[in-house]
Write a structure and sequence with these properties.
This protein is an alpha+beta fold. 31% of the residues lie in helices and 22% in strands. It has helices at residues 13-26, 34-44, 101-115, 130-138, and strands at residues 3-7, 50-57, 66-75, 84-92, 121-123. The chain has a five-stranded mixed beta sheet with strand order 1-2-3-4-5, sandwiched between helices. Helix 1 crosses helix 2 (34-44). The longest helix is centred in the C-terminal third of the chain and has 15 residues, at 101-115. The protein starts with a strand and ends in a 21-residue tail after the last helix.
Length: 159
């Protein structure tokens, strides 16, 4: 499927806000409105420690018909000189999943964080989200520490 996968700029904020809203709505999660999310994306994408990758279909759809995105943050770590990348969200519209778009977005995301000096990407996935776990494992991600083989857990506390 002809796809344009690009690094987002603040000009992509409206599209990203709509995609984030659709993502959270699909999975019945609390979500800001598309407009609220767009405003946040517009501000966030001006930062050096934030990255978004956007996928659009180039098969004659109207310009701006984006169909997926990844949102990543970069943070310092004492373990190496470059930042640690956190993949916060990756979403592809349901009707286009299994078309290779998620793979293209993930590959572009990995390439971009490498350019920014990252040595590692961290992803949190719900344990019951078997499809997402399978997708990331297929692309070389693991829920095991590569040095010790120990299983990893993510803990969350709302403040």
């Amino acid at each position: 499927m002809p796809t344009d996968v690009r690094v987002a700029t603040p000009a992509d904020a409206t599209s990203l806000g709509g995609l984030l809203h659709d993502f959270n709505t699909e999975f019945d999660c609390p979500t800001p409105s598309a407009a609220e999310a767009a405003g946040r994306f517009e501000r966030l994408l001006r930062r050096e420690d934030v990255l978004a990758v956007v996928a659009g279909i180039t098969d004659g759809r109207a310009p701006g018909a984006d169909v997926g995105f990844a949102f990543l943050t970069l943070r310092p770590t004492p373990y190496w000189d470059g930042p640690l990348a956190q993949l916060e969200d990756l979403y592809i519209r349901p009707e286009l999943r299994a078309a290779g778009i998620g793979t293209a977005v993930l590959h572009r995301s990995v390439s971009e964080v490498r350019k920014r000096g990252c040595d590692e990407i961290l992803i949190n996935v719900d344990s019951d989200d078997v499809d997402a776990r399978r997708f990331y494992e297929r692309h070389g991600f693991s829920d095991r520490d590569p040095d010790t083989g120990s299983g990893m857990r993510c803990y969350l506390r709302q403040l």
